[in-house]
Amino acid sequence: QVQLVESGGGSVQAGGSLRLSCVASGYAYGNNYMAWFRQTPGNQRAGVAGIDPDGRTTYATSVKGRFTISKDNAKNTLYLQMTSLKPEDTAMYYCAAEGGIGRIWWEGRKFGYWGQGTQVTVSS
Fold it and tell me: What is the DSSP letter of 63?
């Protein structure tokens, strides 16, 4: 059974930084595409950053240059380093893995494995 558990969210002032982590069990990061999504109330979940098995990364335009996605295959852990945070980055952030019975697509990939989410709040 695949389980993804996020941590690292919190409250920060604009311009600050946070690092999110996502630990997986029952799923091999090394062989699969992983991503971070975010969602605000009343809106659909949107892709923020993704990383493929070879380490190639993709970013949403709104976070390019400020967020960095990375992974440690040995620890089965995915990271999202967020810098220069803005109030509009406030959202629930979710770790996601490609595969499974997914309903959400991003960058041509279907995501069916999700964590429970971690809240990020950026104040002005």
Answer: T
- Can you list the positions of beta strands (E) in the chain? 3-7, 10-13, 18-25, 34-39, 46-51, 57-59, 67-72, 77-82, 91-98, 104-106, 109-114, 118-123
Tens digits of per-residue pLDDT, 31-62? 889 999 999 999 999 999 999 999 999 999 99
Phi (first) and psi of residue 108, to 5 degrees = 80, 10
Q: Which two tokens stand for residue 68?
A: 């960095």
Contact (Cβ atoms closer than 8 angstroms) between residue 36 and residue 93: yes
Residue 101: count other Cβ atoms within 10 Å of its Cβ: 7
Question: What are phi and psi for residue 75, nearest 5 degrees?
Answer: -100, 0
Tokens 């996020």 belong to residue? 6
Q: What pLDDT shows up at residue 27?
A: 80
